Amino acid sequence: MNSPNYLYSAALFLASVISFVVAMLMASQRRPLAPGSLPLIVALLALSWWDLTYGIFWAGVPGPTPFFWLDITYLGVVIAPTAFLVFAMQLGGLGVWVKPPFLLGLSVEPLLVTVMLWTDPRHNLFFGAMRTESTASILSGGPVFWLNLAYSYMLLMVAFLILIRRYTIVSGIYRRQIGFVIAGVMVGWIANFISLTPLNPFPDADITPFSFTIQALFFVFALLRYQLFDLTPIARDTLVEQMAEGVIVLDADDRIVDLNANAEALLPKKPQIGEHIEQALAAWPELVQPLLHTAESRAVVLVDPSRQTYFDVQVTPLVDRDQSVLGRLLIWRDISAFKRIQHELEVLATTDPLTQVYNRRHFFELAEQMIARPAQQWQPLSLLIIDLDHFKAINDAYGHDAGDQVLIAFAQHCLQAIRPADVFARSGGEEFVLLLPHTSLDEARVRGQHLCQSIAAHRPRLEGVPSLQFTVSVGVAAWRGDDTLQALLRRADVALYSAKQQGRNRVTCQDASDAVPASATAAVFRPSPLHAPDSPPLR
């Protein structure tokens, strides 16, 4: 053999160490190992063996035979292409074919070639009697050598095509991962090809092992930068790019490994592959916290109160055959339009369509809840029933459109005068109810008087109608602690009836003697009487 070359030997040892370290980094990842990781570990260990034994050969270490350290490198040479094909198949979505019979078939050729190499002196089929004492590499030989070379290149070519195919159908972090693996493979492939041609800058040495150093560095970068085996490969085919929903795939640590175009369009900022979902959705913490700490969940989340943006979000765990959690599938759709329609329907169900105050049904619901509260047992509560005086005469004189405008103007005037805790509703026709929590009978009477006076002085602007004044009559009742809502309404209605009998435009409590005119000098709209003196008062 040639004289020792310690610099070349040291470079080979370094290449061996790098390949070995990368293999150990992959082996140390979480269990179970991700598809493709085990065969790549085997391939890197084979490369490490090739570099190590070739470095020993160039260091001039004696062996049992003159070519012992050179021949033993072939254990790595024949294993690496086979292991890499299996790696490419598993990474490329063809793992279903990797079964024990298939692996057994792949092991036949490396085993036969190894046997033919070590028994070459008996048949000269591997080296073809071309080996000399100065041989420092195995770059040529007999028919077995060239058949093995063709077979190895065929395996690498198939693996390369599988990775190329996979590269074209995936996106995001998987495309970047596979892109770096492809680049590493091409470096090793090109270097090995050069070492077999006159282009080899070191004719006496095989430069292929050096290529494995660069190849290992590619894998290291992919491992550390793109979490090559920490991020579990989830088939991109399961994501429908044309889905209207936003789709994000997370790994077991809630980092983004893939997303579709609609997810990018819906998010406030474009997320980065490998970024933690809490960082990607920092502007929408309401979307993250309730969902990512449960096995499976679905919720409607208000993500942007200022714009009333609602998302219907579903989180589904992604598990393997052993039910180990590989990650999460986060799917959401914008249901803001639906929520707006829902809100409008809720408003229609609770609101009087003309005056936009509560309707009778919703008033009863709120009043019953208020009376049923245990705390209400110790708090005063009063009820006002308010009726617009001579409203039928307004309709007769100016038409129903004018009457509707009067009702709207009255309702808006009352809404500006009530407290946030008060419950104001239209109970029907020209009659309204006002429930006053924490209000005694005397306080309610004063509130009613102020309302009568302000309404009598109010001149709303009505379209197509001359400016006019109208008045209201008010009946007041106080809750006695054991009243039902119906009993409270009846007593307030009796008080209202009394106010009507006493001339309207006044407030009356339960006792008719408590009637108080709203204003002795108030100018009111009084059309001609429509009823005989013995007729019931106009409501």
Q: Total helix count?
A: 18
Question: H/E series, N to C?
Answer: HHHHHHHHHEEHHHEEEHHEHHEEHEHEE
Gap between N and C termini? 122 Å
CATH superfamily of the largest domain: Rhodopsin 7-helix transmembrane proteins
Q: In this structure, how is the largest beta sheet organized?
A: 6 strands, mixed
What is the CATH topology of the largest domain? Answer: Rhopdopsin 7-helix transmembrane proteins
Class inferred from helices and paired strands: alpha+beta
Strand content: 5-15%
Question: How many independent structural domains?
Answer: 3
Q: Please give the share of residues in helix.
A: 40-55%
Query: Spans with pLDDT under 50 lasting ≥5 residues?
Result: 230-240, 512-516, 518-539
**Rg to the nearest angstrom?**
44 Å
Mean pLDDT: 77
Gross morphology is rod-shaped
Order of strands in the sheet with the most strands? 7-8-6-9-10-11
The level 1 CATH classification of the largest domain is Mainly Alpha
Tell how many strands the DSSP assignment holds: 11
